[in-house]
Amino acid sequence: MLEELVTYVAPQSNENQLILDLTFGGGGHTVELAKRYPQAKILAVDQDPEAFENGQKRIKEEGLEDRIDLRKGNFSNVIQIHELEKDSLDGVIADLGVSSHHFDSPERGFSFRFEGPLDMRMDVDNTEITAADVLNDFSAKEIEEILSSYAQERFSRRIAENIVEKRKEEKFENTKQLENLVFHCYPKKMRFGKTHPATKTFQALRIYVNRELDVISETIPQLIDYIKPGGSFAIISFHSLEDRIVKTEFRKMAKEMGIVDLISKKPLLPTENEIIENSRSRSAKLRVVKKKS
Ligand SMILES: C[S@@+](CC[C@H](N)C(=O)[O-])C[C@H]1O[C@@H](n2cnc3c(N)ncnc32)[C@H](O)[C@@H]1O
Description:
By secondary structure, this protein is an alpha/beta fold. It has 13 helices and seven strands.
């Protein structure tokens, strides 16, 4: 959906072209914006120190230091981080969640495919609670609540109770301990389905540790004042909980406040070809609003 995303946030006029990317990641979207709109300046943030450092290198290698301003931080603080001015942005994009880099780095603990520490923090410098802290210190009720709220895990109670039992013998330290426990909490006939039993537990812990849903609902209404009339706000989400928040916040601004138009009632979905090229895109949804002139 790169093409749609980049097209929706096209600059409004030839002057003071400014686009904001809330989730720099590997820089794919930011760099594409910089190349597509040669007169625009692109502001970007990412809270992950590795994404930030690799990003600075990439910007240099691409010779785009004058065009892209990448800062490290949570997008919920982007107004302060980039000292944004009201009605200044031609467009804002966000590509929510974790990056493939996170899933592919065993030492970050996001994936049960590898053995690694149960960390799961994107912003390792400023987030205090790790996934291991939740598993070792929270009550069974609290863990159950996290698993059911952030992943609708149907075996949340059983998993939570087993975690609390197991930690009496040994602390939770690595991803494989948790994967193994969740696997055995699933009924035998459900253990080898299309989705691994640990998928939801890992998703829920990651969302909790990084406050992923809270920051989305905090940020969307704040940023709209900083977009120029006629400018767009485009967000790609990867699971239904994120999409529900984006949909609700966008509808509120469109229907109750009357300050934006919804570009489409239904979210835009990736094409068959995009899904073949990148299987992780299969659950992506793009929603866009345009600020009224
Ligand atoms: C799906 S990736 C973005 C990929 C990017 N669009 C690209 O083309 O490479 C999401 C990125 O957003 C970052 N991120 C997620 N939530 C964030 C937040 N609240 N504040 C800042 N960065 C965040 C993650 O660290 C990750 O690098």
